[in-house]
Structure prediction request, 280 residues.
Amino acid sequence: MDVTRGDFSSPDELPDEIRDRGRDFDVIVLGGGDGTLNLAAKAVADIEMPMAVLPLGTANDFARTLMIPTDLAAACRNVVEGTDYGIDLGHCNDVYFLNVASIGLAVRACEYRSDTAKKWLGALGYVSNVYAAFRDTKPFGADVVCRGESHRLHSIQIAVGNGRYFGGGLAVSSDAALDDGTLDLYSLKPHRPGALLRMLPSLVRGPDKSIQGVQLLEGEAFEITTDRVMQINTDGEIKTETPATFRVLPGALTVKVPKAYVDQYGHAKRRRPVDGDRTR
Prediction:
C-alpha cells in the first residue's frame, strides 16, 4: 500500500486539502478524535470518497459506534480490510455533525471539560462535567416541530443524535444508529440533583421510552426554537445557536468499517419502527 501524508499546516486547512487532493487516492485516512472527523466529514462526503478512521482522540465516539478498534494496529488493518459502508450525516443550520448536537447542559459541560478527565474516565468524565454544570444551567422552554407536529418542551438538555454515542460513551438513544436515516432527539426535564444522579446509568446506556422525565422523538428533520437564544454544541464544539433546523443526510458518507459491524448491525439486519413521538 502506498501512503501519502496530507500537506497542510493547520487543522482549518484540512477540508480544502481533502477537496483538492482526495480524489487522487483510494481512501482518505484520518487519525484523530471526533473533532478531527467532524472537520473533515463534509469535505470527504463532497468528493464521494471512502473515509477510514484511526481513533487517536480521547472520546472516539464515532469509532465506538462503528466498532472501529481503538488498537492502532487493528485500526490500520481495518483501513485495508474494512468494508465500504454508507452512513448518515447530520446538519444543523450551516454546521455538519457526525455524532450529536446538544443544547443546554452539554454546552456548559463542554466549557468545563478537562482533556485529562475525558482521557482517563471516558463517559464518567463527561458525566462529572454535566453534574458540575447542572448548577449553572437554567431550564429553558423549546418548541420542536417534527413530522408536521409541534411539541412544547421544558428542558435542561436537548440532544439531537445522528450517531449513537457522545461525550466519551454516553448514548443519545438506546437504539440510535448512524445508518438508519433518522435523527434521535431526547429532552431531559429539570430534575433535582439527586434524581439526576440516579438517572445517570440510563443516560450512559441511552434513554428509552421507559425512562420517566425524558421525552424522545425521532424523525428526518427537526425545527427547534427556544425561549431565549441558546448555543449549540456539535460534536464537542460550539458552532451555532438557536433557532435551528436539523436534518439528516442519509448515506452521505462512506466509511471503512469492520466486517463485525456489518454482520451485527448492517442495513438489512435492522428496521427501526417509525413511531415519531416516544414521549414519557
Remarks:
- The chain has two domains: 11-87+252-269, 95-248.
- DSSP finds nine helices and 16 strands in the chain.
- The two ends are 52 Å apart (CA to CA).
- Residues 11-87+252-269 form a domain with the Rossmann fold fold (CATH 3.40.50.10330).
